[in-house]
Design brief:
heterodimer; A: 712 residues; alpha+beta; Aldehyde Oxidoreductase, domain 4; 3 domains; 7-stranded mixed beta sheet; 5-stranded mixed beta sheet; 28 strands; 24% helix; globular; B: 210 residues; Ubiquitin-like (UB roll); DNA polymerase, domain 1; 12% strand; elongated
Chain lengths: 712, 210
């Protein structure tokens, strides 16, 4: 019998559906009586809507409803004193405008074209108020977030770097970056009576969506059904339930028909979050032989006036390197902008760009190889939490990466290597991201034909969740992958965590592992064998012999005490080789080697793709991505995919993903640590450092566009 | 014009007053195949726009994946929305609706186009192939097989467009080197970043055909 094992390169179980157009995403369910919702956006950044003229829109052909702050049915969870209040923007609940682009009306019509046309007829008059969108102008208005964990951190002495013999003190800037998944955010909602609602919605966590919608409408959780089987990318933008999703449900109740609300690409720049504009100051102090004496990391990033967003931008400086003194400060600047949301490698990607760039600057000041400098400050325990690592193979990452990229060819002085008109350079950037594991339930069902069905309410936004889970189940049960069907993206399935923070394989994979072992034990017992029998048994025969129609088990799995005794992280080292054109300043990443300690790798094929994809995202962060704001109007000027440059095929070099592939002995039974974030964290610094190595130009404001290369 | 209940409040000058005038002019100018008499009568008699609307749908005959369709569509409906919302062929994806991402790529008379940039009515009598029409029954097109083998996708949302572009690319002969493939596939964005795997898939198909 064919055996599929953990670690095998298994092709995606849903590959055939995805290459034939058969995979149905949330906006692709043809429901009887389907109607279309189109949002109308505010054109001022701050103030109130004083009146709206919806007459023309209401009378336009095919229009069923025009919902505005003046006529919207009340959403229970939006009201003061709600039992289960909804956080964030409360759409159409009042006349306030907090940012340009905030929806002020929702038009529902028989067709998409009719709704779009009618939306163009909605007129609003405003009472405009002064607004603030200029981050740089408002920098000093930064405040320490309300949440306690963002208070200033000090280990040893604050700002000790200033007293060191060798000092680097620099500011690094990251512009706002948009997730821009290829699928537009879309929600299709319909009600069954007054107390039951079903959604097909773009979601990274159907259980989270279910609770949010139940809270908003004061429904029993079980009366909210969320479906999100296929998600066309998200990268964090679907971690939470957004106001427009609530609005679609509200509209469906009003028109008593299914409503499909799709955001435009431009609306996705304001309504579904982004990685916030951040300025960081890094202070590094070292002895002349390269021992860090102090690290200071300060960060200011923008947030919305109506909701506070925070992320771990400074945390990486607390634990990645040994330093007797380290301190961090983190502030947010509230502006009249849409609220940010975690974007792949949230916080850590931002923070590692600054820290890893500063460390590179220090290496040149000290005239020490960047790898050697990192080895001199390597730490075998977590200096922040004073705990041992559950596992850490970052040294091995340096070594493997250096070999693969050809680090020995790196010029020790910048601007020394050329290839025709191109200057050649090499750079290193490291990353770390917490390895998490959340409580997960999984149901397994064996039928007498020998096939196994597994269900859990997890998601797959692209990494290949179902494929990895199938491989785990096949390995534990000792049956071919073809016999296993894996289902996800349905809130009626057993509870699983939201797909975010690189925790899916660790959480869901452990539960699949555990439920498969439980099933094997149960079958052994039924067959009259010891529960821990490891000899092969024919599952189907046992069911047939006992005349059982099926055998079904649900198992819950979670971490125990070990989570508090160890510090658990995935680590990565990204090596870039770049070419910088001497006349035009164009930067081309020629090669990128990503070496990752992500614990045991379940599926080498999809894991490799995930690493390559994260690296492409990191190249975008380094070289092309920037949401450009016009502070005169408080609006993005490049809110589309032609002017906001995500990397295209020609921007992506040869990328090699290398895995340490050693199981973490602590975190979970398989030893997986997570890849999604770590694939991106550290890439931007690797590229920026390579640009310096090629040109001698240190560019601290991302993205590194040709004008900056030429003008620096 | 002022009596019209739902004339666009803005852009009157641009539209020379009304949709009805436009109907009269355009039907006189071009629409021999339509029913200009009916349209002019509708316009002249100032029927309610909701009635006029019914007459604004125009007949369209086209072939999609070998199936002949005769439908009535509004002139403002794009080929992409016709496929997705009316013909229930949702394999072609909407990622931007502006011709900037390539997710909606289909073949029209054998040439790859962004279907979001083509009005449905401009495809009268044409042969459209979408991702749903690529496989022969259960037998996948070699490009589909190669995308699975080389893992040329993750979330799958850009995949239909990538594959339709890739099939056309091989026909266009723009596959001489990985660099050329990358350049000519750069109209199809993949945010998951599967680009290098996509290039490998295309190379394999190209090599197997040469």
């Amino acid at each position: 019998m064919k055996k599929d094992k953990i670690g095998d390169p298994l092709s995606r179980i849903d590959g055939r559906l995805k290459v034939t157009g058969g995979a149905k995403y949330s906006g692709e369910y043809k429901l009887p009586g389907l109607t279309y919702g189109v949002l109308v956006s505010a054109t001022i950044p701050c103030g109130t809507v004083s009146s709206m003229d919806i007459q023309a829109a209401g009378k336009a052909p095919g229009v069923l409803a025009v919902i505005t702050p003046f006529n919207a049915p009340k959403v229970p969870g939006y009201q003061p004193g709600a039992a289960r209040p909804v956080r964030g923007l409360k759409l159409f609940n009042d006349d306030k405008v907090y940012f340009n682009g905030q929806p002020i009306a929702l038009v529902v019509a028989e067709t998409f074209e009719r709704a779009t046309y009618a939306a163009s007829l909605v007129k609003a008059t405003y009472k405009a108020e002064p607004f603030e969108t200029d981050f740089h102008k408002n920098f000093d208005k930064g405040v320490i977030p309300n949440e306690g964990r963002y208070k200033d951190y000090v280990r040893g002495e604050a700002d000790a770097y200033k007293k060191a013999p060798v000092v680097v003190e620099q500011d690094y800037m990251l512009p706002s970056e948009m997730h821009n998944p290829m699928e537009l955010h879309v929600t299709t909602a319909f009600w069954d009576g007054d107390d039951k609602v079903t959604l097909y919605t773009k979601s990274q966590g159907v259980i989270g969506s279910q609770r949010s919608i139940a809270n908003a409408f004061g429904l029993e959780v079980a009366n909210v059904q969320i479906n999100s089987r296929f998600v066309g990318g998200a990268f964090g933008s679907s971690l939470r339930t957004w106001p427009h999703e609530v609005a679609a449900v509200q509209a469906a109740r009003l028109v008593k028909r299914p409503v499909k609300l799709t955001l435009t690409r431009e609306q996705m720049f304001t309504l579904v979050g982004y990685r916030p504009l951040t300025i960081q100051r890094i202070g590094l102090g070292a002895t002349t032989d390269g021992k860090l004496m102090g690290i200071t990391h300060e960060s200011h990033s923008q947030t919305a006036v109506y909701e506070e967003f925070t992320e771990n931008a400074v945390n990486v400086s607390r634990f990645l390197y040994a330093s007797p003194n380290a301190n961090t400060r983190y502030k947010v600047v509230p502006l009249n902008v849409g609220v940010p949301t975690p974007m792949r490698g949230p916080g850590e990607a931002t923070g590692s760009f600054a820290l890893e760039s500063a460390l590179d600057e220090l290496s040149y000041k000290l005239n020490i190889d960047p790898i050697e400098l990192r080895l001199k400050n390597y730490t075998d325990m977590d200096p922040e939490r004073n705990l041992p690592w559950s596992s850490k193979f970052l040294k091995e990452c340096y070594q493997l990466g250096a070999e693969r990229i050809g680090w020995e060819k790196r010029p020790t002085k910048p601007g020394m290597q050329r290839d025709g008109d191109w200057m050649v350079g090499y750079g290193l950037g490291c990353g770390a991201f917490g390895a998490y594991r959340s409580k997960t339930q999984v149901r397994i069902k064996l039928t007498p034909d020998g096939s196994v069905n597994i269900q859990t309410a997890t998601s797959d936004i692209g990494p290949g969740t179902g494929t990895a889970m199938t491989l785990i189940a096949a390995d534990i049960l000792g049956i071919p992958a073809e016999r296993i069907s894996f289902e996800l993206g349905n809130s009626a399935f057993p509870v699983a965590p939201t797909q975010g923070g690189s925790q899916t394989v660790s959480s869901v994979g452990s539960a699949v592992h555990d439920v498969c072992i439980a099933l094997k034990q149960k079958l052994n017992t039924l067959a009259g064998l010891p529960a821990d029998n490891t000899a092969e048994i024919e599952y189907a025969t046992i069911l047939q012999r006992l005349n059982l129609p099926s055998l079904e088990l649900t198992q819950e799995s979670q971490s125990g005490e070990e989570a508090r005794k160890y510090s658990m992280y995935s680590f990565s080292a990204h090596f870039a080789q770049v070419h910088v054109h001497s006349l035009t300043g164009i930067v081309r990443v020629k090669r990128l080697v990503a070496v990752v300690d992500g614990g045991k790798i379940v599926n080498h094929k999809t894991a490799s793709s995930q690493m390559i994809g994260g690296a492409v995202g990191g190249i975008g962060m380094a070289l092309t991505e920037e949401a450009i704001f016009d502070d005169r109007f408080g609006r993005y000027v490049n809110g589309n995919l032609a002017d906001y440059h995500v990397p295209v095929n020609a921007d992506a070099p040869d990328i090699e993903a290398i895995f340490i592939d050693k199981p973490d002995p602590i975190i979970n039974p398989i030893g997986t640590k997570g890849l999604g974030e770590i694939s991106l964290i550290g890439v931007a610094a690797a590229v920026a450092n390579a640009v310096f190595n090629a040109t001698g130009k240190r560019i601290r404001d991302l993205p590194i566009t040709p004008d900056k290369v030429l003008m620096t | 014009m002022s009596k019209r209940r739902n004339a666009p409040p803005e852009g009157k000058d641009l539209l020379k007053g009304s949709r009805r005038d436009f109907l009269k002019q355009s039907s006189l100018l071009s629409a021999a195949a339509l029913t200009p008499g009916t349209l002019i009568r509708a316009a002249n008699e100032q029927w309610d726009e909701k009635v006029a609307d019914a007459f604004e749908k125009l007949p369209l005959n086209l072939e999609v994946n070998g199936v002949k369709y005769s439908v009535n569509v509004e002139p403002r409906v794009t080929l992409l929305d016709l496929l997705r919302e009316q013909l229930n062929l949702t394999g072609s994806k909407k990622g931007c609706d502006r011709g900037q991402c390539g997710a909606c790529t289909v073949h029209v008379n054998g040439v790859r186009i962004n279907s979001c940039l083509s009005l449905a009515l401009c495809n009268e009598g044409k042969k459209v192939t979408t991702i749903e029409g690529l496989a022969k029954g259960d037998v996948l097109h070699p490009m589909q097989e190669a995308f699975i083998k080389h893992d040329g996708f993750q979330c799958g949302y850009c995949t239909s467009g990538q594959i339709m572009s890739a099939v056309a690319l091989v026909k266009e002969g723009r596959t001489q080197s990985p660099g050329e493939i990358s350049e000519f596939m750069s109209g199809n964005i993949c945010r998951c970043g599967a680009y290098s795997n996509i290039v490998k898939a295309i190379q394999e198909v190209k090599n197997s055909q040469s």
